[in-house]
Amino acid sequence: MGLRDAIFGRTKQVAPQLDNIFALPGAALTLQSELDLVTSGQAGLCFKAGSGESSMLSDADILELLNFDAPKDSISLTSDDLGFKWLVIDDPTIDGLVTKIHAANSTMVDHELGPRLLCAVFGFVPATPPGEGSVRLVYLLKQGTFYPFAPTGPNQRDNELELRVKSFLSADLVMEKDLSRWMALWNLPVR
Amino acid sequence: MAKTKIESDRGLNVRMFVTGLALVVLYLIITTLLIYLGVGYGLVIVIVAAMIFSQYFFSDKIAMFSMHAHEVTPAEEPRLHEIVDRLCLLADMPKPRVGVAEMDIPNAFATGRSPSHAVICATRGIMTRLSDEELEAVLAHELSHVAHRDVAVMTIASGVGMLAGLVSRMAMWGAMLGGGGGRGGNNNDNAAIVEMVTWLVSIVIYVVAYLLTMALSRYRELAADRSGAILIGKPSVLASALVHITGDMGRIPRTDLRKAETMNAFFFVPALAGGTAASLFSTHPTLERRLDALNKLERELNG
Asked: Would you say the ipTM is above 0.85?
């Protein structure tokens, strides 16, 4: 975005970056060996619910769009109280989750809903509970970067665990280097 | 550090004294320069003194305003008030007013011209991040600043910097106007050169005064760390609080990604990109330095 755009206050919408997500299965192996964390069997895609004529899609329309040969009960669409929609996907394997999330992303982009995508979230839980606590890996679609989010309460997160996850995964994933962008996602519907 | 039970640290006191002494020497140099430059500056000094005094006198209001903080009652923030009450009893000092700043950045500050006019303030970010024990340690550090009268000390110290800056500006005007005469006929060229030199010297003084002020501030921070840790009796708790609010952990936000979309680039490219510039001359010692000092204190207390 150049100076001219800044002066005239133009805002260019950012296309999402989808490909970095394929590094996730490798990172999942690292998480298992280093921190004993395995996939929770759930992943979510968060996007802003639109309010415009053509972009005004009903939940049924979106589910129809994203119908990629998956059993109906493994995909659900929920809204949160902050005005965002969550596509929640169940799949026991991390490869399955990555494939489905990527398919959902691509479909959204194909239907020009790409700019609305906020993030994808993958849940990880201790293989032998209680363990160290569960961690979500958040993928910022606009930045193409990952960061960990480990909530421990309604407004509490385990920064120590998050920083350890980052240190282990830096080799596998494109991690978000600007820590001030590691925004929280309180009460997210993904396990 | 008058009548409080907060103990002092000799080594730190010596270093603070030396730094303060260096500032006094600077005062003398500046006064000499002022005398050399002659009259007209008397009024200027009065103005500067008034500015410094009001900065000192209204320090609590200025700080509260610039941090967007508001005073809170015990009913609004029982946890914060309880901790401050307990610490003030422990340290035998009057209870300051208590404020909260609604921001996610973890921070706390204490200010005010005297312990009886002090205000102690915490941000929402520090209150959600720290446990009660850690918050107590941070507030003990801030109360130590109040007990040490750091606002007065730092106002005097930075006042020198302001004076030096003023002298340099006056000298610069003098150098520019000096050539036009009025200063006694045939010595115009010499006068201009002398004033140029004065101007350069003033700038050097300004830089040195600034560096010394920063050094003094860092020593005051270490002294407050020490007193605060001794007050609560657990240096390790203050150390853990520092780890949680400075460095990497302090930068991880509590703000929700879905609420933050307007203030950054999640949906749109920002119109103006702003990098986070780290300040070159820091008012606080490094985290490492502070943790080292606290570790040493922990061993002393246990030892």
From this structure: no
